[in-house]
Write a structure and sequence with these properties.
15 helices, five-stranded mixed β-sheet, Nucleotidyltransferase, domain 5, alpha/beta, single chain, 17% strand, Arc Repressor Mutant, subunit A, globular, binds zinc ion, 14 strands
């Protein structure tokens, strides 16, 4: 059996007594998950901080760190870091650079991407596949899993599990892509089951997950990016087509009773001259504030070579002096602001983060967007404005997907890995 510092009685109590020993060892094992989460999210850069955050003795924290290192998950570096509790330099802690990875996959309106993601949200390798997304989910999910399996072979990493981000609400508990409005997939496609079949067929073991892409953006940004430290984090993003939202409350995604909460794309933001939406309504955020809406409003032809997101972002970045582009951008900022104002009144978030093209809109004219949100929302005015920040992570849907696959390890490292 593998050496296990927390189970071989290294941290024997000073006073004898079997029950006390058991309690301490159980406490040590119970601290493994919380300890790993602290290192994973960068909140415990040293063993001294880990000791304080866990509220355990130095000996317990030392044993916990040693066990996580033995599992190949973190590195304990004896080089002097911050001063420890007794004035001595403390050991530095970081995620293992060569440790296991999660297989993360993303399908979006313009193609797919596979990635291997280590602890700390670190992308180890990635493979884009820009192809027209097939109407058969099994085909595109097969392509993305094959690309991920190839990355695993190339890198020789151990895989802890797999997860896919899809541009659709995902109904739980079955894992159905209920509204893949911008893919040609049939509504209600059993996306998690299909993905799991492809993962198993590729010889990859471990738990398998599927979730809405913006939910995963929010999760990734909350743990590693612009959402760190927020208690009621609202995330709104437009990737390639459509608009999604997500809410992280006290560190956990709020998904509603069956996974379908925060469908913010169908808030009405242009009731007068709004264009028809796939949902049957008119003037929804989904069709009024996505990349296609910007290109259309600016009088540009969409596509066909690059992705709509890249085309829209390039247009704003390189042609903002063109009055048509500026007017279109301002119109999108106003519609987005109107949608955010309604959400602020309902959800009372302490921070808003914006992803995809919405991040570009914020960076282009932050004052205009913040003014619309403040002026049009009751709580926005009263609190002097909710902080609105751009997302900061690259490939945050993929990093978020990896968080799902890593979660069993973060909850109980020994149970998940041995
Ligand atoms: Zn709609």
């Amino acid at each position: 059996m593998r050496h296990c510092a927390l189970m071989d009685g290294k941290e024997a109590p000073r006073k004898a007594g079997g029950a006390t020993t058991r309690t301490r060892l159980d406490r040590g094992r119970a601290a493994l998950g919380p300890a790993l989460q602290l290192v994973h999210t960068g909140r415990a850069p040293t063993r001294a901080v880990l000791t304080a955050e866990l509220g355990v003795t130095r000996a317990t924290a030392g044993a916990v760190a040693a066990e996580l290192e033995a599992l190949g998950l973190i590195r304990v570096d004896a080089h002097p870091g911050a001063a420890g509790s007794q004035g001595r330099p403390s050991h530095r802690l970081e995620v293992a650079g060569d440790g296991p990875v999660a297989l993360a996959a993303q399908v979006h309106a313009d193609g797919w991407r596979a990635a291997l993601v280590g602890l700390g949200g670190r992308i180890v390798a990635t493979a884009p596949g820009c192809e027209t997304v097939d109407a058969d989910p099994a085909k595109v999910l097969g392509s993305v899993v094959d690309a991920g399996a190839e990355l695993l072979r190339e890198t020789g990493r151990r895989c802890v599990g797999a997860a896919v981000a899809v541009p659709s609400a995902v109904a739980e508990p079955e894992g159905l892509a209920l509204a893949p409005l911008h893919l040609a997939w049939p509504a209600g496609a059993p996306v998690r089951e299909i993905f799991a079949e492809r993962v198993r067929a590729a010889g990859i073991t471990g738990p398998v997950f599927a979730a809405n892409d913006v939910n995963l953006v929010a999760l990734a940004e909350h743990r590693h990016g612009a959402g760190r430290g927020a208690r009621d984090l609202l995330c709104v993003a437009t990737g390639h087509r459509g608009v999604g939202g997500a809410l992280v409350l006290d560190g956990r995604l709020h998904t509603g009773s069956s996974g379908l909460a925060l469908e913010v794309g169908h808030l009405t933001v242009n009731p007068e001259g709004g264009r028809p939406c796939h949902c049957g309504s008119r003037g929804c955020l989904d069709v009024e504030a996505d990349p296609l809406a910007l290109l259309t409003a600016a009088g540009r032809e969409p596509g066909p070579v690059v992705s709509l997101l890249r085309q829209a972002e390039d247009l704003i970045r390189t042609r903002y002096d063109d009055p048509a582009v500026r007017t279109a951008t301002e119109a999108l900022i106003d519609r987005l602001g109107l949608g955010l104002a309604g959400l602020v009144n309902i959800l009372n978030p302490d921070r808003i983060i914006l992803g995809g093209l919405h991040r570009t809109l914020l960076e282009t004219d932050p004052d205009r967007l913040r003014a619309v949100v403040t002026d049009r929302s009751l709580w926005g005015r009263q609190s002097g404005g909710v902080p609105i920040l751009p997302c900061t992570l690259d490939h945050n849907s993929l990093v978020g997907a990896a968080e799902l696959a890593w979660q069993p390890v973060l909850d109980d490292p020994i149970a998940a890995l041995t």
